[in-house]
Amino acid sequence: MSVSRRGVMKGGAAGALSIALAGSTESVFQTSAGADVGEAYGYGPLVPDPKGILDLPKGFSYKMLSIEGDPISPGVVVPGHHDGTATFPGGRPHTTRLVRNHEQSNNGTRAVAPSNLTYDPAANGGTSTLEVDRNGNLLSQYVSLAGTSTNCAGGRTPWGTWLTCEETEGFTGETKSHGWVFEVDPRGRRTKPVPLTALGRFAHEAVAVDPHTHIAYLTEDASKPFGLFYRFTPKAHRGDYHTYLAGGTLEAMYVPDVPDLSAVQEPGKRFRVQWVKVPDPSAAATSTRKQLEKITRSQKLEGAWWGHGKAYFVCSYSHKSDGGAADHAGQVWTYDPHSRTIELQLVFKPGGRFDGPDNITVSPYGGGVMLAEDGDGEQHLIGTTRHNKPFAMARNAFNDSEFTGVTFSLDGRILFANRQEGPGVTFAITGPWHRLH
């Protein structure tokens, strides 16, 4: 296993960790990089795993399930590049279904499904559906969508389906256009390989859906120029599988005087939002992000999740050397639809222990969030308390692959997360969960 940049820092000379927190008594929290930073706020220090797979706090344990390459049926194996995931009620008492993305284009361990579940035969991405019992044991699995590309993250709908997002605007060899959102029924009854074109064609990351209005908030990970934060308002207030198929209006967020979110470095800062209609959501001639000039952008817009009446969304990092307005190693924002404002909740300063937050879920324990790290060197699951104090929940002790698909079971007993590659694997983490203040 390679020695990471942060591993050297922990074992050697002290460096500065700077994490700014919304609502804290100090705007910057600093300590030495050699200390077990923030773990007093969580479940305690991480205990080295004797198997060298996953370090967790004392009292917690994990199970590995649905590993890339595992046989499912004749000619079908678990696809690779595990990514965004959500949980749903299972088909049996006390069981949970997971729908999981596979972030592959025309590469990786192919997602194979029947033709009625396959969009483009040239694309290797898709989704898998797993069923597990209340203790995190795998009961069954199958490929639930195939022929899609670069399925990164997505979002859960209020009517109990999964929106899987393609993070691409096309690739070599495609037979159909890509850059869409598809809807997957965890029960396998209504899934069709049909893009939800009204939600736009762009390098999608994730979706957070307001359960009351069914408005969807979408992130875009793109550059030259940077991506946008979108709002999709459905035409019909149906609240079922056909809600987004019926069409609607796609808009992009504009914050006056804030052309780049990275310029905001003070947690607790709040800004009024305006929404600008996207002229051509299908991007037939011009990418959606290039259709608007007076707009707010961000480098690396990634995970999104709905919780506490707000849409949470993540910016993984910003580099001035890449054209960003300022440097940071991660931001967590919320959008409040009632006040029509965004607020910076947390920012990771460069050079600290944590960097590159990606997938996000809202924790049922204490009102904080759980973040999957996709940064330099060793990778963590990062938790926060309800006062936005961060701590290490887990560490990938096996390799430097990113964490993805962080999500809790509906009863809160199991935290699921994926190691994306080397090979891809889904973890079921259990332990003494409790409310974090």
Automatic annotation (TrEMBL):
<dbReference type="InterPro" id="IPR008557">
    <property type="entry name" value="PhoX"/>
</dbReference>
<dbReference type="InterPro" id="IPR006311">
    <property type="entry name" value="TAT_signal"/>
</dbReference>
<protein>
    <submittedName>
        <fullName>DUF839 domain-containing protein</fullName>
    </submittedName>
</protein>
<dbReference type="Pfam" id="PF05787">
    <property type="entry name" value="PhoX"/>
</dbReference>
<feature type="region of interest" description="Disordered">
    <location>
        <begin position="105"/>
        <end position="127"/>
    </location>
</feature>
